[in-house]
């Protein structure tokens, strides 16, 4: 005597559970990430499109650092936008972002200081370093706001 059991499941998706989390772009962390992406992109383009750098190694370092963190922050932004961090719970995402922002804040601050010291009055290079400082400020604000999530006080059990 054999039995056959057939199980069917149906899933319905409501309008609030779409693939993209567009509401994230209206939150403070989302707006900070958008501001960082825009300022890093402008900083990179200002230095990249300028010819006749007064100091070749300084601006190569600036380009590499701004482009690297532009790509990294774009990945973090898209990860939050597509809710990918919920699909990979084995990684502590707030702590990962905290460390990445702390390293990025320091390296972009150093690159902006070096770029502003070596710009020698070239307006595009000065603008690039200013946007580097703006990105550093936005990263510091994001670091400050994410500190309570990643390293804040834990509830006692």
TrEMBL record:
Which Gene Ontology terms of cellular component type are present? Answer: membrane
Pfam families in alphabetical order: MARVEL
Residue ranges of the MARVEL domain?
24-151
Key words of the record: Membrane, Transmembrane, Transmembrane helix
Topological relation to the membrane, as annotated:
Multi-pass membrane protein
The yes or no answer to whether the keyword Transmembrane helix is present is yes
**Which domain of life does the UniProt lineage start with?**
Eukaryota
PANTHER family noted in UniProt = CKLF-LIKE MARVEL TRANSMEMBRANE DOMAIN-CONTAINING PROTEIN 7, MARVEL-CONTAINING POTENTIAL LIPID RAFT-ASSOCIATED PROTEIN
This chain's protein is named CKLF like MARVEL transmembrane domain containing 7
Q: Which gene encodes it?
A: cmtm7
């Amino acid at each position: 005597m054999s039995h056959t059991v057939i199980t069917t499941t149906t899933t319905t998706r409501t309008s609030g559970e779409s693939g993209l989390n567009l509401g994230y772009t209206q939150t403070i962390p989302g707006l900070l990430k958008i501001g960082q992406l825009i300022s890093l992109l402008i900083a990179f383009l200002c230095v990249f499109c300028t010819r006749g750098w007064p100091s070749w190694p300084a601006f190569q370092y600036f380009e590499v650092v701004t482009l690297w963190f532009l790509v990294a922050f774009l990945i973090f932004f898209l990860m939050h936008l597509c809710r990918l961090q919920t699909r990979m719970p084995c990684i502590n995402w707030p702590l990962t972002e905290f460390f990445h922002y702390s390293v990025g804040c320091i390296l972009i601050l150093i690159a902006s200081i070096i770029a502003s010291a070596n710009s020698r009055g070239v307006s595009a290079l000065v603008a690039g370093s200013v946007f580097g400082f703006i990105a550093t400020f936005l990263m510091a604000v994001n670091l400050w706001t994410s500190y309570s999530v990643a390293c804040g006080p834990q509830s006692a059990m």
